[in-house]
Amino acid sequence: MSITIKAVAKQLPKYSRETKEILPFVEQWLSGKEDRFKRKVLKIFEGAGVEKRYSIMDAPEVFFYNSFEERNDIYIREIKELGRESLKKALKKANWEATDIDFIITVSCTGIMIPSVDAYLINDLKMRQDVIRLPVTEMGCAAGVSGIIYAKNFLKANPGKRAAVIALESPTATFQLNDYSMVNMVSAAIFGDGAACVLLSSNEEDDGPKILGEAMYHFYDATNMMGFKLVNSGLQMILDKEVPQKIASHFPEIIHPFLSNYGKTIEDIDHLIFHPGGRKIVETVEDLFGSLGKNIDDTKEVLKLYGNMSSVTVLYVLERFMDRKPKAGELGLMLSFGPGFSAQRVLISF
Questions:
Q1: Is-contact 15 22, C-beta < 8 A?
Q2: In this predicted model, what pLDDT tens digit does every residue of 173-229 receive, in sequence order?
Q3: Please, what is the angle between helix 35-46 and helix 19-29, to 10°?
Q4: What angle in degrees, to the nearest 10, is found between the helix axes of 143-157 and 313-324?
Q5: pTM of the entire structure?
Q6: How many CA atoms lie within 13 A of 321 on its CB side?
Q7: How far apart are CA 150 and CA 182, in angstroms?
Q8: Which of 51, 80, 115, 322 would be a feasible disulfide site paired with 119, CB 3.0-4.6 Å?
Q9: Phi, psi values for residue 91, rounded to 5°
Q10: Considering Cα of 185, then 189, then 193, then 197, what sign does the dihedral take?
């Protein structure tokens, strides 16, 4: 029995600005700070590799709303809409009905809502009352691939079923107005908001790329490298500057044994479907693969056009490949990194 990826669809928030349009707001926010510090921060924004980003809040709101309650209320309102529209788009692509879904996984780490967003989707789209729900809240940037792994394992155990993985993120809602640390500056420079839905199936009637294998890799003694700290003003980013080097040092263990388990080598991989964590991580990964004749052009393009949308971002990269319809039999390797510290991998045959 094979597990197929039937469709991928993205949904963008209502607001968008190019980085050059955001810089005046950053300058205003930093008014009163030393000129040298302001120049350094602006340089971070200009060199982040992000030309445009989308947001659930317009720039004036981002630099105005300060309370956790205000930002989280906007997150809840907009995440419901993004989830509904991304699922509807994916269902239309697949020619499925909402009632065809047996298992719904929603992933998000940038806000808090109980009930989770899947409960609202079940009501809004009148999904079946026996649909199985799995909200994933604390895996960060890795959760888009994690969700695919969870869906694949459910479908493997349940032939003839269909699953939806919906990733919904608003890093904008975590922006800290009173935090002038480099971590907050870098986060603001690289992150954007977005949503995406992936539909998967163990139904023999459904065609699409097949999942050949999946695995997680967990780094020891790295729990302090990435994540959020809950403070009075919301979710405060934790992002260690050593993350790119940590990834580079573990890369052979992350890639080669995984592919070997399925009788493959990196030379067999035609398409790299990687999460663009940020410019430095992209450059690190590019250096590792450049000598092998591989490229991560789509990863770089998604970072440029949308920024890092946490768990959502790798699904935008996947959609680009799906829309291009690679040749039958070509192989793709999905990879994302997230808090823990961990790496999530999926091997795909187109």
A1: no
A2: 999 988 999 999 999 999 999 999 999 999 999 999 999 999 999 999 888 888 899
A3: 160
A4: 60
A5: 0.94
A6: 28
A7: 35
A8: 115
A9: -60, -40
A10: negative
Q: Quote the CA–CA distance of 350 and 331 in Å, as a whole number.
A: 6
Average pLDDT over residues 68-74: 93
In the 3-class helix/strand/coil scheme, how is the chain assigned residue by residue? Answer: CCCEEEEEEEECCCEEEEHHHHHHHHHHHCCCCCHHHHHHHHHHHHCCCCCEEEECCCHHHHCCCCCHHHHHHHHHHHHHHHHHHHHHHHHHHHCCCHHHCCEEEEECCCCCCCCCHHHHHHHHCCCCCCCEEEEECCCHHHHHHHHHHHHHHHHHHCCCCEEEEEEEECHHHHCCCCCCCHHHHHHHHHECCEEEEEEEECCCCCCCCEEEEEEEEECCCCCCCEEEEEECCEEEEEECCCHHHHHHHHHHHHHHHHHHCCCCCHHHCCEEEECCCCHHHHHHHHHHHHCCCCCCHHHHHHHHHHCECHHHHHHHHHHHHHHHCCCCCCEEEEEEEECCCEEEEEEEEC
What does the block give as tokens for 173? 């809602």
- Sequence-distant (6+) residues with CB within 8 A of 245 are 284
Could you tell me the two tokens for 332? 């793709």
| Count of all residues that appear for the chain in the document | 350
